[in-house]
Amino acid sequence: MQDGTKELPNNVKVSLKDVKLYLNNTKEEIYNILKTNFDELEINLNNILQASGRIITEQLAEYSHAVSLTNLSDIVAGLESIKEDLKIMHTITRDLRTNASQLDIVVRGVKNNLLHTLAACKTQNCKQVLHDYKVNQMSVQVDFDKLPNVTSALHNITMLMKGNIVSEVSQGKESFLKIQKDIQHAVNQTIPVVSASIRRIGVFCSSLATNMTMLIDRINVEIDRSVKNLDFARTHIDQYSPYRYYVGLGISGILLTVLMCLTFGLFCGICGKRPDGYGDDCCNKGSGARFLMMAVWIIFLLTSVLMVITVVHMVIGVLVQRAVCEPLKNPYDNRMFALVDEIVQINKTLYPQNPNDVNMSYIVRNCHLNETLYKVLKLENIYNVNSLREYAGRYDINNTIQQLRRKISLSPDVVILTDSAKSKLNDLAQSGLSDIKFYQYVEILADNITNINLEHLSKQLLEVSAELPAGQDEIRVSLEKNALDLVYYHDQLVRPMAMLSEQLVTKAVTLEEKIKFNHSSMAEAIHHLVDEVTKAQQFLNKDGPEYVQQLATKFGNAFLRQVDDFLERVIIYALSNVGRCGPVSNAYNATLVAGCNKILDPFNGFWVSVGWCLILFIPTIVLCVKLSALYQKSDPYPGPLVEAEYLYDAYADRDNIPLTHVHDKKYVSHSRDPYAKYESYDGPAGGYNERERVPEAHQSTSHYHHYSRYSDVAPNSNPTWRSHEHTAPSKTEPHNKVFSISVETQNCDFPNGGPPGYQPAAAAPPPLSTEYERPPPYYYYPGPGDTN
């Protein structure tokens, strides 16, 4: 309970910070959807308006197949690149043929020389080289004369380009693009009107976002004020809560003290021995009785105070539980919550100018249902988002879009491809470029230029020459010379020719793909594209204006649809997504747990427990008193009684006091004789009445400290001291010796006639009875003991 009390301000502050974080996030969501997102939409719509001509023209070209004109323009525009590629291919082919002729001449010379030299060499190595490398068959194996001739195609393309084929086809493309420019020019006159209408919607959405965020800001101000109040509450809790804590701790200590007394009393009473007065234990039944009576005294002294404190706290706890916690946990149809709604006019805080029926119970219920902030705070009182669907008529968007549609039109007599351009395109198709067999480049140049690797042969010849025996210097020189020639020809002719061959193959493959235009050949592609452009031109002149109007209508509807989709998204998000109130519900429940579950529940539990303890004190008192009386009883002496001999006492008027108790006056005065009621004193004449009794158990001689006086019926003149020895059992010895002294009076002479008032025996009055009456028995007395 103390921990919950100390942590309450921090827990409430955390909950308030969570609510504030939720409100700030919700404010950002509202700002993003109504301001940021609409600004992005506005930019996108303006870009669409600026590109309206291009959009409509592209759709028109796609529908009318005028897009083929773009492909024709690309073909014509690529003629310059094609001409350059053909020139490169023609140059490479010419160089390869020249180098091949030169290579063939030098290879033949080396072959003849090697055949003569190797034939003159008689070593096995020479014969092996001649056999392995087949020197007699060494030659240039690539026939470069079979490569396709591109001279004719190159000449035709060059002539077409000189005839301005590129410009004529480009003029047709410009004619088509003029349609786009005309449409865009017409639209540009209406764009400011449409943009202004869109801007008005944006201004309205921005003002709506501002109003909602201002409402949230007012709530945040109240939360900040509550946080400051929490700091004040924390100060007082830290100052005064320890007092309440120590009160509860003191009451718990009192209850614990009572419990300890009861516990020790019961343990001593159950496990301890009965008190008998002879060396008792410290924890006997008598101690248990005293512990129980101590508990009774504590209960009597403090119960009234505890009862008042407990009743006050229990009443406070019940009132808080019924008036605060239960209404907060169940705000549905709760009278206390209705009273809170009347006191806390939250609608005036939220809507100072236009109060409505928003109250705390409504907010709490809807937050528990995880509704959006729009529904929880009834923001429809600020603006009904469903009315956004009526924006088209309110902001005159439809009229501006109709004006935009009327501006979009197509002029008749559109010429996108002249007859001269068609003729030149046909000449391009028949230029022979499509007749070039580009695959032959790959097939012919795939083989090695020579059938023998000249470099490898050169290395082998040098090895053979090094191994020749002495006396063949001429052959050695010839082999070395031929080896060096082969290396030179390989580096200067074969390698450059191989590089040119790879370059020629790459150019051929690239050019073949470039001139096909997704057709089998360039001629077929040009004929197909020319037919498509011709049909597009006929469509534009015949059905183009009507179709452009349809495109304008579609464009306007698509434009409005984007605005509709955005506003519909705003409506859906406001009603279903933005600012779901689940975090507030969690913070609310956390506050209830911090206040009710962590403070009030242990508070009520503690004081109800104290109340039950006070009620249980009533039977506890009765039981303690009864048990205390039982625990204080002592056990009787378990040994037998021995009757002592009493002799005649001439001085009956004296008290017969046992010698062992002469000095124990306190013991005598406080002794209790359970059998004293059976003795009576009959006066100086002597005589007594005694009820005969036989004790069944040993009785302590401490009960017999006073004795009756007996008259001396027949006194003697001389006293005689007699000693009588008695034995009786005790705890420590089987028998204790007890001595009693009796005095017998004999005749004696006293000077001066005796003491004052003394009467001789002869002058004494006669006894009442001459029969001797025996005095009562003298019971066994074990000796002095602990009077306690």
TrEMBL record:
UniProt-annotated stretches for the region Disordered: 715-735, 747-788
Topology of the protein relative to the lipid bilayer: Multi-pass membrane protein
Membrane-spanning parts: 245-270, 291-320, 606-625
GO cellular component: membrane
Basic and acidic residues composition-biased segments: 722-735
Pfam families: Prominin
Localisation: Membrane
Ranges annotated as biased composition (Pro residues): 753-768
Major localization listed first in the record, in broad terms: membrane
Coiled coil regions in record: none
Classification via InterPro entries: Prominin
Assigned keywords, A-Z: Glycoprotein, Membrane, Transmembrane, Transmembrane helix
Family: Belongs to the prominin family.
The name this protein goes by in its record: Prominin-like protein
Taxon lineage: Eukaryota, Metazoa, Ecdysozoa, Arthropoda, Hexapoda
